[in-house]
Structure formats: structure tokens, C-alpha cells
Amino acid sequence: MLALLSSMSFESDLLLSLLKKVNVSEAAGKKVHKGKLSGMDVLLMNTGIGKVNAAHTATVVVEKYPVDKIINMGIGGAYTGSGLGPGDVAVASMEISGDDGVVTSIGWKDMKEISIPVLQKGREKYYNEFPLSLPSEAFFKAYSNTEIKIRAGTFITVGSVSGTQKRANDLEKRFDGICENMEGAAVAQVAAIYDISMTELRGISNIAGIRDKRRWKLKEASQNCQEIVLDLLENG
Questions:
Q1: Where are the domains of the chain?
Q2: Which neighbouring-strand residues pair with 201?
Q3: pLDDT > 80? residue 236
Q4: Phi, psi of 156, deg, nearest 5
Q5: Superfamily of domain 2-235
Q6: Which of 42, 106, 185, 207 has its CA 20 to 30 Å from the CA of residue 64?
Q7: 44: closest CA among 92, 81, 7?
Q8: pLDDT of 69-122, one tens digit each?
Q9: Predicted confidence band at 145 (pLDDT cuts at 50, 70, 90)?
Q10: Helices (H) and strands (E) in the chain, counts
């Protein structure tokens, strides 16, 4: 079973409308929609915003249902050097927990500074970084000359989104990131705990650090992201 997770309902409403043979139930106080999408058994849930809600929902999903893959989706803010703009779609090659670490006299350091991994699987230690599964090269090539620009790269998960250009620039430079969000690394950590494959896509609603909501494209970003997810299910 494939789990489709988004933080808010508007980030998954298109896919929910296309779900066939829908069964609605409840788990941990949240609605669970199960059905068929592109011939696949699919479970769709909204996690709620933030890392705790996302990790909680992802854990409930993999503990309660026979999930073998997760697609985390939604909207996010692109960094200026990403080449992405509102309405485009970013795909995560890696998720990074951008807040976890230590603030020292010479600046922020990641979890390696503490020398305690947040997760250890055998000899593999995870500190801040969680590699994710990417679609095929052919999938990206199919969008090389389309109106919607798609780019893969590092995502950064933060508890406080960038409200200034300086903050956004600092995060982009520190992690070589293309996109920031508030849930992805938490879901990626849960997926790593359970050895479940995870892919993440984000429609770009705004440029990180620019808080002028008149320039944001929330609906367009969400719809484009969901259409790309649907295409990934059918052709990826």
C-alpha cells in the first residue's frame, strides 16, 4: 500500500477527488481515506502542520496499515538559487533537519557536534540527513521543456520558516538547499526507522524569505504538485 501524506487538506484535495472505491475511517483522531488511484492501493491522510504532527501521523500509518512506500507532498518555499519560482515543483533527493543541533559561539553546528545520532540502523548513523528515493531520469526528462519547472535537490525542514531574506540565504548556503518546509524530515526519519521507501514533492508557493502573500501561489503550487504526483504514479 502507498501512503500519500500532506499536512493540510488543500494539499491533497485533487488526489482525494480522484480516489476510487473510497473507504473512510479514523486513526489517532485523523481521517483515513483508503482507495484505488492509478490502479494502486492508496491511503491518504493529512498530518497537520509541523514536525510532531507529521511524525505522529507517519508512525500511526506504518504501524496500523501495510504501507511499503510513502509519498510526502505539499507546498514549500524555494530558495533564490534554486532556479524555481511559484508554481514550479521541487523533488527531494535528501531531507535535512535544519533546526536540530547546537548554537555555538561561532555559529550553528549539526547533531554531529553532540556526537549522538537521532537514529542508528546497524552501522549506519543518521544525524540530520535522510536520503530519499527519486523518480527515474526519464520522468525528469519528460518535464525538461514544459511550462512547469521540476528540479531535484536538498530539502530543509525547519520549525520556523524563513521570514527574512537573510535567514533564507543562510539556510540555503549552509545546506545547499533548494526548498524549505515544516514536515519532511520528520516523515523521512520515521520512514528510515521502518525501512520504508519515501519520496517527497513540494509545489513552490513562494520564494523563501519573502513574506508578501500577494505574490504567493498556494493553490497553483498545490495543484501542480498533485498533478505531478499523479503522473509519477502512472508513469514514474
A1: 2-235
A2: 73, 91
A3: no
A4: -120, 125
A5: Nucleoside phosphorylase domain (3.40.50.1580)
A6: 185
A7: 7
A8: 999 999 999 999 999 999 999 999 999 999 999 999 999 999 999 999 999 999
A9: confident
A10: 6, 14
- Provide the percentage of residues in the chain whose pLDDT is more than 90: 95
> Which residue from 228, 227, 207 is spatially nearest to 217, judged by alpha carbons?
207
158, three cell numbers? 525547519
| pLDDT over 90 at 212, yes or no | no
Q: Which long-range contacts (CB under 8 A, 24 or more apart) does 221-225 make?
A: 221/75, 221/86, 221/87, 221/89, 222/10, 222/11, 222/13, 222/14, 222/74, 222/75, 223/14, 224/87, 224/88, 224/89, 224/148, 225/11, 225/73, 225/74, 225/75, 225/89, 225/201
Greatest extent of the chain over all pairs of C-alpha atoms, in Å: 57
